[in-house]
Amino acid sequence: MAHTLIDGKQIAAEVQGELSGRIDRLVETGHRPGLAVVLVGENPASISYVTAKERDCEKVGIASFDHRLPVETSQEALLDLVARLNADDAVDGILVQLPLPEQIDSDLVLQSIDPVKDVDGFHPLSLGRMLTGLPTLLPCTPHGVVQMLVRSGHDPAGKHVVVLGRSNIVGKPLANLLALKQPGGNATVTVCHSRTPDIAAVTRQADILIAAIGKPEFVTADMVKDGVVVIDVGVNRVDDATRKRGYRLVGDVDFEGVKERASAITPVPGGVGPMTRTMLLFNTVVAAERRRGIE
Description:
Blueprint: E1 4-5, H1 8-28, E2 34-40, H2 44-60, E3 63-69, H3 75-87, E4 93-96, H4 106-112, H5 124-131, H6 140-151, E5 160-164, H7 171-179, E6 188-192, H8 199-203, E7 208-211, E8 228-232, E9 236-239, E10 247-250, H9 255-258, E11 262-265, H10 272-291
Parallel strand pairs: 1-11, 2-3, 2-4, 5-6, 5-7, 7-8, 8-11
Antiparallel strand pairs: 9-10
């Protein structure tokens, strides 16, 4: 079966283009949207991700405030920094990069962020408002996935969507968004996870399959039906001696096998990743507008 590639880079560029006019309007009122990024420690993946986020901010015209702290930073010191950022009028969004070192309670830190600046969408108040369909800053990856589906012509309304994975960051909030009675929702949603018996029997029923289970190439061709739309959220490193860096990136889906049965599929890399970063920019702009009474 011929498949269509759902290009995350292209859709992300489209969203960023829409943001530019909104950023210009904010600047005309005397305020440039600002994102504070806090990184504790030297995790290479986190450093790479934060650097990319800051580059994205510069590209679209969002001010970026970089706070890099040593790995031995205390919980008290980090909470003090978050409190200062909450009070800083130049900062519209606060992102504390996870994972945090073991001496720090991640939940406590995330809950200390002012919900109006919670651009990651992880605060319990943000999640509660999302659950009830109230306006809020949505988690970036789930919102990015919904935008990818709608903008690529695969509206989930009336479809059976199977979500593989039940994490607080992707699986659970995404399942909720897809089921909401609003644009981008109205799907019939099934959530599968490590305790689901015979996962393949469930995934074969999916009109849209979203893989966020954290296992390299877990979804194989025999687990999907012909014509399925596949969104691969996973990013996994697998050893590859033929590559200069010694590894390659793969998703949670066996791309080469599954693409032969899919009507549309996202690549890894270049699929969901660019959308996650772009929805962070989107949330920063929305936060800046709401803080200044601009709808």
